[in-house]
Amino acid sequence: MIDIKKINNLDKSEFLTIFGNIFEKSKWISEKVFDLKPYDSLESFTSKILEVYDNSNKETILKILNLHPELAIEKKLTSNSESEQTKANLKECTPKEFNEFKKLNIDYKKKFNFPFIIAVKGKKKTEILNIFKERINNNLEKEFLEAKNQVKKIAMFRLEEIIK
Asked: Which domain holds residue 42?
């Protein structure tokens, strides 16, 4: 567990080591949040991280979305993504499931120009695959907003793991 006093006392290097991947490969968010210290509570700290993300323009959000790995396919994952996908059994796909994920990843990326993103915590591969099959039918505007919200959920799960 990490409390607000400890967060406020971290130097920039320590802060970025701990919080730099809250948003997948987007350390710049944590750098901005570091510069806003000190925080009076964990809630204000958390809200500032989300606020920096939420206030990003559409082009920046699209860049963040494209930093996320494809599900069940990507070989080079951050430690966070590796752990999350492993817990959802995405590393144990049958050949049929693997091929479904592969085809969906290709079709989804072609349609939306960013990878399918879902907060996998608490979900298993069958549920994820079913949601994937549903969401690929969304229009771009709806799916962009859904992907943006899923990134936020992932960030919250990652923050909870650190500060719990």
From this structure: 4-60
